[in-house]
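haha ok so turns out i had the wrong file open the whole time. this is the CORRECT one, sorry everyone. sequence first:
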Amino acid sequence: MELLTSFNNWGVGSVSMLGISAPFIATFIALFAGFFLNFYLPFWKLRKVPGPAPTFLVGHLPLLAKHGPDVFRVLAKNYGPIFRFHMGRQPLVMVADAELCKDVGIKKFKDIKNRSRPPPTVGSPILQETLFLSRDSRWSSMRNAIIPLYQPAHLASLTPTMQSYVSALLFNISEAEKEEYIPFSDLVLRMAIDIIGKTAFGFEFGLMNQFSDQRNDDETERDNDITNFLKEYKLTLEYLKMDLSSSFSTILGLFVSPSLQKIFKKILERFPGTMDFKIAQNEKKLCQRIDALIGKRSKEKNKESVDFLAALLNARESGVSKDLFADNYLRALTFEHLIAGTKTTAFTICSTVYLVSKHQKVEKKLIQEIDSFGPHDLVPTTEDLQNRFPYLDQVIKESMRFYLVSPLIARETSQELEISGYILPKGTYVWLAVGVLARDPAQFPEPDVFRPERFDPACDEEKRRHPYSHIPFGIGPRSCIGQRFALQEIKLTIIRLYQHYVFRHSPLMESPLELEYDLVLGFKHGVKLIALKRGA
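then structure:
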C-alpha cells in the first residue's frame, strides 16, 4: 500500500513538475478519444461489409483519385454487388445490383426513404428545404401537394411555352451556323434556363435573346433583378462543387460528422474573405432576390398563369397548403426547379445530339421517324410526344445510359435494417451505383457500344433485362418528380432540331469529350457542333 501511494504521489508530482495539469491531461485524452471515435466508429459499425482497407483520415479518396468515377465499377468487380467506400471518414454502403436497388428503393423504402446530405449542402437553408433533401413527413407532405402539377393535363399546358423557346434555339443556331462552330451546349443551357424561368417563375429571363443581342452588339437593357438573380444562381452551382476549390467547411465535411461541419460552417461564415463567408453572402442575396420575385408574383394574383410558382401561390392562398408552403419552403421549391431542371435537361439534350451525330445509322433512322410524323414545320403535341416517337424514346434511353446525369443515388437509413445479409445501423449512408448498372455487360451486352435498339420492347435483350437495371430518374417514391416535364422538353427539342438540321462534330471539340463531375455530370469544355441545314 505504501509503495502504491508513493508511486501515485510520484506520478502526480512528475506531471506537475512538467507543468502539465491533470485537467489538461483529461482534456487531451477526451479530445483524442473523440478524434479516434470520429474516424473509427463509422468504420467499426460497418466492418463486416466487404471493401478495401481505408486509409486513415482520407478513407478511399486515393482510389477515387486513381480511378476517377470508374472506381465503383472496379470495386464492384473485386468485392461484389454490395461493398464499402469511405468518402473520407464517412463510409458509404454501395449497392451495384439491380435487385438490391429494388430492395433499397421500393421494398424497404419506409426504412430508407431519406437522402443523405452531401457536404456542400450542409447548413444551407435554401438547399435543405428543397423537396430533394427534405425528410420524413415533411417530404411526403410536400410531394403529395406538388404531384398534381406534373400531371399530363398541366404539362400539356406548358408545351406552347417550351415550343417558343425551342424556336428561339433554332433561330440562334441559324444565326451561328456559318461560324466555325456552334456553342451547342451553351445555347441549350440558355434555352433550358429560359424555359424554367417561364414555367417555374413566370418570368422572362431572356438568355436566348441575350445570346442573339451579343452577336449583334445590341446593348439592350435588361431587368437588373433577373440579371443579378441569374448571377447568384450561377455562383450557387459553382459553390456546390466538391473539389479543392470548395469552401473549407465543405472539405472538412469529408473528415467530420455533419453536425460538426455545420458548427464550423457557422463560425467560418463570420469571417470576411473566407469561401464560407462568400457562399453565405451569396445565398443571402439569392434568398432576398427570390423573395422579391415571389412578392411581385403574389401581388399580380393572375389566376390564369400556369407556371409552378403561380400554382403554389394559389394553393397557399386557398388555405389548402398554407402551412406547407411558408415563405422559406416556397422559396426553396421554386429555386429547386432552376437547379434540377436546367443543367440536367440541357446535358441530356446535348449528349443525345452528340451521340446521334457520331452514329450515322442511328441518325438516319431517327430522321426517318421524325420525317414520317409530318412537314418540318409541324409541332408535335404533348400526346404526340408520348406516343408517336418510339425510336426517339430508345435513343434518349441509350444516351442516358451512356451519359448518366447522376451516376449515384444517395439514401440514408432511418432505422436499423438488413440488406443482402448485412445489418446496417440507423444513419448508414446507402448509395445506389446506377452508373455501374448502366455498364453491366450481363444486363447490357457490349456496354460501350451505342445501340438504341437494345431498348426496343420487342428486343430479346430488353425482355431479359432486369427492370431496374436502368434507372436514370431514380427509383421508387423518391424518383425524380419532374421526369415527365424533362422528357417532354428533351423530346420536343430533339424533334424540332432534326426537323431542320443534322449535326456534325466540330474539329475544335476534343475527342472523347472531357466530363466534369459535380453534383450532376457536365461537359468540361462544352459540346461544339457544326449545323447542316436540311432541305425543305
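The CA atoms of residues 316 and 325 lie 6 Å apart.
again sry for the mixup
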